[in-house]
Structures are given as structure tokens and as C-alpha cells.
């Protein structure tokens, strides 16, 4: 996880989102422990209370289990739960804006499919 923070969002929320991304991409697999609050605070040079707040948000959303004296662990089924909620969020919040922009620019499905290939050709 990178230590770059956006001034437009609270750090605890950004840390939460970085953790969610790690669960989604498999960097933090189900059943695995999260790094300790203390370690994350040191690594990112942030207040341990900020880390605790981010982790508590994951507990509240039932993505992480607290095990007293042992730590916090990614819950079984967390990735599937996240995929469902993130897909819904994308389709209802992000996609409408993207679709409107695509229409505004007059881009076709073909243009969108070919764009990565053109980018790769230019990079070579």
C-alpha cells in the first residue's frame, strides 16, 4: 500500500479503501490477519487511532473479525461481499458519469475496445 494521502478525504477512510482494495485484489486473502495497528501507524507515519478507526469501519461492515488478543482477520466471504457492493456502487454511481462522458465525446464501443491496443502500440 502506498503512503500517499489525498487532502480531500480523511486518512482513516483512505486507509480503509486501501485495505478494501487489498482484499479485492487478493493481497489480503480471506482468513489472513491484517497488519497490526501499531505496524501500520509506524509504516505510514499516522496516528494509531486513525488506523483503529479505519479497521473498526471494516469490522462494522463485517469484512473483518476481531479476535481478542490475536488481532484482526479478513472474514471468509469478505471478497465476495465487497465485489457485490463495489459492482453495485460502480453501476449506480460511476458508470452513469462515464457513460454520459462517452456519449458526449461521441465514442463508440469499437473506440473503447481499441483504445488499450493503441496505447500499447504507442508505448512500444
From TrEMBL:
The keyword Transcription regulation applies. This is GntR family transcriptional regulator. Pfam families: GntR. PANTHER family: GNTR-FAMILY TRANSCRIPTIONAL REGULATOR, HTH-TYPE TRANSCRIPTIONAL REPRESSOR YTRA. InterPro entries: Tscrpt_reg_HTH_GntR, WH-like_DNA-bd_sf, WH_DNA-bd_sf. GO terms for molecular function: DNA binding; DNA-binding transcription factor activity. The keyword NAD does not apply. CDD domains: WHTH_GntR. Keywords: DNA-binding, Transcription, Transcription regulation.
Amino acid at each position: 500500500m502506498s503512503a500517499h494521502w489525498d487532502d480531500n478525504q480523511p486518512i482513516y477512510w483512505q486507509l480503509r479503501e486501501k485495505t478494501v482494495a487489498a482484499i479485492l485484489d487478493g493481497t489480503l486473502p480471506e482468513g489472513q490477519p491484517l497488519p497490526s495497528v501499531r505496524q501500520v501507524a509506524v509504516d505510514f507515519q499516522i496516528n494509531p487511532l486513525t488506523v483503529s478507526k479505519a479497521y473498526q469501519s471494516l469490522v462494522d461492515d463485517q469484512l473483518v473479525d476481531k479476535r481478542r488478543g490475536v488481532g484482526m482477520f479478513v472474514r471468509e466471504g469478505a471478497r465476495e461481499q465487497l465485489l457485490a457492493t463495489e459492482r453495485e456502487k460502480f453501476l449506480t454511481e460511476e458508470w452513469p458519469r462515464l457513460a454520459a462522458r462517452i456519449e458526449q465525446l461521441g465514442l463508440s464501443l469499437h473506440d473503447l475496445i481499441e483504445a488499450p491496443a493503441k496505447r500499447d502500440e504507442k508505448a512500444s
